[in-house]
């Protein structure tokens, strides 16, 4: 059985839907990854052969004010999962982020590029990456700019703001690939089915800015909202963000044959699905 920790989150829910009978979800309060006794109890009771950790403290600006919690959940929590999965002979799949990079490379990041986080969230996720090594039988998947039906995300924020306002300013100097959690889940399952271990990047293909993403959301939704450019500096959020953090997914494609669809195709499919919900 594949245990999905953080099974009620945005990625966890879509991953469980894809896994069907192979998967079982756990989340707070059934498991608290910051408590090793809780991790031991759940894992020794359920005896999964594989654990996918989708649990995290994902509020990037919130992490700046709550660094201790960020390190406990995103760093130490992964160490506990790695220790216990190693002890029970299970594989650990850890999900990480483009925010471990500083965005200064000027090209898509490869799996072995040196991490250099700019914010507490990135530092805590990097601590989690390093702790994943405690279990040598692991798969580390970095992804970025997630949206999906089962969590707070940029698409939902834009659709809400677009209903309230005719004109918005959105940053146009951060570049990445918006990624649908369904495509990320497909990529993770492709890696598992191919028996892959080590580090992989998974994101929808292509790249845009948050501003370009916002314009695409309104165009595909038939909403007449004017999207003005603004800089990251003007937005002045608590956490610094990498400016160009697209991920090279070549290793995923080479080792599994799975190519994530272009980000705009994924967005269209997401919006269609959302309209039917
Ligand atoms: N969202 C993005 O744009 C993005 C980008 C790059 C990478 N990632 C990574 O992708 C993964 C999935 O992200 P997501 O957006 O799907 O996350 P999410 O929707 O925030 O889901 C995280 C889940 O983990 C649970 N959780 C939090 N603390 C926990 C704890 N101590 N023990 C057990 N469960 C706990 C949360 O429960 P509560 O809701 O009750 O707190 C929630 O159900 C994470 O590793 C994240 O770092 C996300």
Could you explain the architecture of this structure?
It contains 11 helices and 12 strands. It has helices spanning 10-19, 36-46, 60-65, 67-88, 120-132, 154-164, 181-193, 210-221, 232-235, 250-256, 263-276, and strands at 2-5, 23-26, 50-53, 91-97, 138-143, 146-147, 167-171, 175-176, 179-180, 198-201, 208-209, 226-230. The protein is an alpha/beta fold. Helix 1 (10-19) links the parallel strand 1 and strand 2 (23-26). Helix 1 (10-19) crosses helix 7 (181-193) and helix 8 (210-221) packs across helix 11 (263-276). It has a single domain (2-153, 178-206, 246-261), classed as 3-Layer(aba) Sandwich (Rossmann fold). The strands form 4 sheets. The protein has a 6-stranded parallel sheet, sandwiched between helices. A two-stranded parallel ribbon has the order 6-9. It has a two-stranded parallel ribbon with strand order 7-12. The relative contact order is 0.15. The model has no long low-confidence stretch (mean pLDDT 97). The structure holds NADP nicotinamide-adenine-dinucleotide phosphate.
Helix content: 40-55%
Q: What is the H/E order?
A: EHEHEHHEHEEHEEEHEEHEHHH
Whole-number average pLDDT? Answer: 97
Based on the structure given, which CATH architecture is correct? 3-Layer(aba) Sandwich
CATH classification, class level: Alpha Beta
How far apart, in Å, are the first and last alpha carbons?
A: 29 Å
Structural class by sheet pairing and helices: alpha/beta
């Amino acid at each position: 059985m594949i245990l999905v920790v953080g099974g009620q989150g945005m990625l966890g829910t879509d991953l469980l839907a894809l896994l069907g009978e192979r998967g079982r979800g756990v989340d707070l309060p059934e498991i608290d990854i910051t408590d090793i006794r809780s991790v031991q109890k759940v894992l020794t009771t359920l005896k999964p052969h594989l654990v996918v950790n989708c649990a995290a403290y994902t509020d990037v600006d919130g992490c700046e004010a709550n660094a201790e919690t960020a390190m406990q959940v995103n760093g130490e929590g992964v160490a506990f999962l790695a220790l216990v999965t190693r002890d029970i002979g299970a594989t650990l799949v850890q999900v990480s982020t483009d925010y471990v990079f500083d965005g200064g490379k000027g090209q898509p990041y490869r799996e072995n590029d040196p991490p250099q986080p700019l914010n507490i969230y990135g530092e805590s996720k990097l601590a989690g990456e390093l702790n994943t090594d405690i279990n040598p039988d692991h798969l580390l998947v970095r992804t970025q700019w997630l949206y999906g039906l089962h969590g707070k995300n940029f698409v939902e924020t834009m659709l809400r703001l677009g209903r309230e306002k005719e004109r918005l300013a959105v940053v146009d100097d951060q570049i990445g690939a918006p990624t649908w959690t369904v495509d990320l889940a497909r990529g993770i399952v492709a890696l598992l089915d191919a028996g892959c271990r080590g580090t992989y990047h998974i994101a929808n293909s292509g790249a845009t800015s948050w501003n370009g993403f916002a314009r695409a959301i309104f165009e595909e939704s038939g909403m007449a909202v004017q999207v003005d450019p603004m800089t990251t500096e003007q937005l002045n959020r608590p956490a610094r963000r990498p400016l160009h953090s697209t991920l090279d997914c070549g290793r995923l494609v080479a080792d599994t044959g799975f190519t994530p669809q272009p980000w705009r195709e994924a967005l269209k499919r997401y919006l269609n699905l959302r309209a039917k919900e």
